[in-house]
Amino acid sequence: MAYSCVPKCKSDAKRKVPGISFHEIFSDSEARTAWLKAIARKDWMPNTTSRYSVVCSRHFLLTDYKEGCKTRKLKRSATPSVFDDYPEYMQPKPKKPRSDPSARKRALAPDNAAAWPLETGTATGLFVGADEDTVPADGLTSSFSSPGLAKVPCFTVPLQVEVDAPSEPTSKHEATQVDVRSSISVLERQIFRRKERDLKTQIQRLRQTIDKYKEELKQLKEDCNLTAFAKVVEAAREKHVGACILVDQVNDFAKIRPTYSEVTIRNYIVLRNLSTKAYEFIRRENLLKLPSRATLQRFLGVTTGEVGFTSLVKERLKAELENLSPQQAKVCSLVVDEMRIRQRLQYNKQRDAFVGDVDFGKDCGTPTKGEPVLANSLLCFILSGLSVRIRIPVGYFFTKNCTGQQLFMLMKYVLKGVETAGFIVMRIVTDNHKINVLALEMLCSGKLQHSIKHPEDPYRKLFIAFDQCHLIKNIRSQFLARDTKKKTVKLHPLM
Fold first, then answer.
1. Could you tell me the residue ranges of all domains in the chain?
2. How far is CA 395 from its chain centroid?
3. pLDDT tens, position by position, 420-479
4. Can you name the residues that pair with 465 across neighbouring β-strands?
5. Which of 206, 237, 239, 367 has its CA 20 to 30 A from that of 11?
């Protein structure tokens, strides 16, 4: 624990008074001697039980600290000089300032006066209250015996100036030398000293105010955990999902009607779909401010559960197109992918129909025939931007053992709908599964090519591409399936 070694000083590190800091005595012998001499008072003995001694900041002036430092640092020449707790007779005596009369005397000294280019005149201008008869006509040469005083530089005082005569008669050789320049300079120096003193006082007061505010701000940050929350807010600005959810939770903590951002409510929908019981438990126990089921349903909107290129997809494309001003932002790719799903038949109340059978939609041109068959795959079409970051699902179909002909018809159907909405499809991307390769060969009129004429605009090209991730995966599988040790692979058939 740090205690101030100054006599009658009660500062210690345990109290943590704002604005008080502690400084160890310098190890330099001269500085240490100067400090001990300034601290030492009547009947005072240094503390021998402590390994080091410190002095609090109350005993230093503001000019003793270095400027431009984040923490208080004393200058090498600083010594304790402020002792408010000492009696008046024990405090160090301040230096006596120079008086103005002494400065005026120095200004009127012969050495200083001779350096000024004053106008020299006759002896008449040097005597105040003397008649012309009492002063010799040939100047001061005949009156003063010393030749060194015969030519004293001075300036002429006009004769029109009225001067009160002294009560007692003076000698005829006494004279008064008037120096207007020195008197004016003394007054100016007094004014400047007073201004300097006022400015120093103002600067000291402002520095004390700044130090006080800095200490309060530091304490406020430590007490309120503002630094940790500021990091969360900064991460939320960078679109971090967890940070966005935390900021919404803090903002909605005391609200009766909370509001949610789009990112937050999307994740709440996923959370409720994963576990309805866990979601309702968190909401019921007020562990988090979660929206109700009705709020989530309003965000999702009313859907009939239809498949294919639906009316909701058309409205979404129309809304996205309004926000894409440049023509280049409308250029995109059509990604085709398929995923496995569980074979299950469910009843949809909104459509009043069973969902889970193979369904290609009503307008795709490939209606289902025969008995209903449970679907085991979901075929998805996604629109991905090339110059802007957009990804929009534009169609999905329930399939089982989809053929190349069916996939070819679905590609043309979705491609036509996207082009009609206003987007420009420059490329079709899919994996190199044999069904996908067969559908692309039909799109290329029998022979697979890198680019073909666009089905919706013959003046444009439509590029065909396979997903590079699946290509690398298939190459790896081929090397693992075949014995290629100590053999070479020729690139000529592949290029």
1. 1-94, 99-126+183-224, 229-300, 311-481
2. 44
3. 989 999 999 998 888 888 999 998 988 888 898 998 888 999 999 988 888 888 888 888
4. 429
5. 206
- Provide the token pair at 444: 């290329």
